[in-house]
Amino acid sequence: NRFRLRAKGRFASLIGAEPESVAAVSSTTRGLLLVANGLDWKEGDTVIIPEHEFPANVYPWKNLASRGVGLRVVPERSGRFFIEDFEAAIDDHTRLISVSFVEYSTGYRHDLASIGQLCRERNILFCVDGIQGLGVIPLDVRKAGIDFLSSDGHKWLLGPCGMGFFYCRPDCMDRIRF
Fold it and tell me: Using alpha carbons only, how large is the chain's radius of gyration in Å?
């Protein structure tokens, strides 16, 4: 409908994307599940997440264990996460790094551009849970090197529960089954 198209366009503009790369979803979790369930995982692949993530950014990846996908957790140090710890967690089987834009329990804001650059250098997909920061902290998905971004609208976007958005970088669309 017209409202949904206009909302997708505004969301795309907010994150520096084209409307064609944005879909409406019912929740942040739903968008993360699109990635977790939509990629063609191979036994031995690994996913990296930070310690103390919100459960919506833990359980979709943990659930991949039944398909032989491993999960690595980057430790928090002094209330922060360091790029060198993400780099140390990477191996030849790392397919994806997933982080929250802003950690829900501490308010720590990840340096998405640095993580995105690391992912580009290593040919690793980069997924972001944006709900805690979108609408209050500027974000450009292209500059940050983000492949997938999911966010519900009910926090800083000041929208209703159950109206969220999912971004997929255009050249990743053929890598994920929707």
Answer: 15
- The CA-CA-CA angle for residues 23, 28, 33, to 5°, reads 80
Residue 125 in 3-state DSSP?
strand
The end-to-end CA distance of the chain, in Å, is: 20
Which three-class secondary structure state does DSSP give residue 31?
helix
The one-letter amino acid at 5:
L
Closest CA to 176 of 64, 35, 66, 68: 35
- Residue 162 DSSP SS3: coil
The SS3 call for residue 146 is coil
pLDDT tens-place string over residues 22-65: 998 999 999 999 999 999 999 999 999 999 999 999 999 999 99
Query: Would you say 57 and 71 are in contact if contact means Cβ atoms under 8 Å apart?
Result: no
Inter-residue contact 170 to 18 (CB < 8 Å): yes
Please tell me the distance from the alpha carbon of residue 161 to that of residue 144, in angstroms, as a whole number: 26
The CB density around residue 138, as the number of other CB atoms within 10 Å, is 11
Q: What is the pLDDT of residues 130-167, one digit of tens each?
A: 999 888 899 999 999 999 999 987 676 657 777 789 99
